[in-house]
């Protein structure tokens, strides 16, 4: 890779360029559920008056999702921001591979399904919803139907309940569609297909960034050992757990194990095959390691069954997690971080645990590790392990202080930061907490603006997708959906809304104006950042939002 060329008329600001990603802070419709509009945010208001302002697409095809009905998410958002281009993403690659049948012609599928004895099971573990962020239920159905076509006698499904990328208490709808498919197959007479275990995605199995390994341990005990609270059906489990904890949402439901005649129906045992059908990496890496890494010492797995394990996708290429996979991930190359590293730009990436991998691993095209040890600092502030509605400020102040220190001491030329608040608190569905989360981010931005002014830097403030901007469920006509008591239903998932982009040049010396772009997406943020640093963007990057006057 060649270093970037300098712009002729602008060689970068005196101070640093700071790219602030306000995770989950989109532009809503200003209605009752728009907590971004509702929040008191003097600093974002000030930026609106004093910056170049653009509105960016952050969902659907603009971030490589199958279609424009798909909301954005952090993986595809940070991939687009960091790589400056739009790659077809896991959701689409897996859909295509399954629909074309290519996935079933591959060696891995054949190996996992071809070697099963009649007594052994094919297990599917994954997130049971159509959120299309980590998984899609239609993919699970296609895998199950193919297993049946191949005459596999026993299938066991380990269902992680969502309520985070889909409505908060929708689990029973997905369970009943799955049960319908399983019953149809069992009715043929020679098959034994059933749900074996499950639990809320935030309680078992789907931890990320090493935040909470006990979640993985609980998932292992539940899926592999069949240890956990026993029920006759998944429906009974969900109904009982909900009745015992009024107000609980699906992502937080405890584990359950399905039993028949007093015995768990589907522990994972020697000779079985296991497919993790989530395509997104962050929350699939730890459980993959539990199956795949003989040296893992994060918890005591007990005797490890001799099984074949594959992910539907490879989640981390360099470390080969997992070793076997059904579909190749998008090949995201030549990302901005690498260009800046070869161009000698000193970089800082900072967030707290929950989003640390977003500004490093996702931002660098799903790669862990740095491009240049001597030029890059990656800082992780340890997240509190609490329900974030109880602490909507999260680690905003601590993150901000790392950046202030860098700016003050002139440590870095390019700083990228993710403030998780709008998203992490948005996923809880607690409106007051969400309002406070947006106000927290605003407060932090205020401190950064002062530092940027003092050093004549440039600040780009944007988001990877919406969440806090739409906290009530609305129907297709835009009317609020109401619960049985007539109250608006809270919404915990991301939104289809665009996101803001404020470009604030403290000294005004860059001499930028907004480029005339129609339909720009967040993939334009890489070229924009590169121009703000005084370089020409690579020719194949999506166009910069600014141009020289
Ligand atoms: O994993 C999650 O928390 C949600 O499914 C998506 O949120 P993110 O894409 O903002 O991380
Ligand atoms: Mn996000
Ligand atoms: Mn999110």
TrEMBL record:
Class of the enzyme per the UniProt entry, highest EC level: isomerase
Reactions catalysed: (2R)-2-phosphoglycerate = (2R)-3-phosphoglycerate
Pathway: Carbohydrate degradation; glycolysis; pyruvate from D-glyceraldehyde 3-phosphate: step 3/5
Active site: 74
Span of domain Metalloenzyme: 16-536
Example GO BP: glucose catabolic process
Binding site for substrate: 134, 164-165, 201, 208, 280-283, 355
One cellular-component annotation, GO: cytoplasm
Keywords from the UniProt entry: Glycolysis, Isomerase, Manganese, Metal-binding
Positions that bind Mn(2+) 1: 423, 427, 494
Source organism, top-level taxon: Bacteria
Domain BPG-independent PGAM N-terminal: start-end pairs: 94-316
Cofactors (names): Mn(2+)
Enzyme Commission number(s): 5.4.2.12
MF GO annotations: manganese ion binding; phosphoglycerate mutase activity
Keyword Isomerase: yes
Function: Catalyzes the interconversion of 2-phosphoglycerate and 3-phosphoglycerate.
Sequence similarity: Belongs to the BPG-independent phosphoglycerate mutase family.
NCBIfam families per UniProt: pgm_bpd_ind
Entry protein name: 2,3-bisphosphoglycerate-independent phosphoglycerate mutase
Gene giving rise to this polypeptide: gpmI
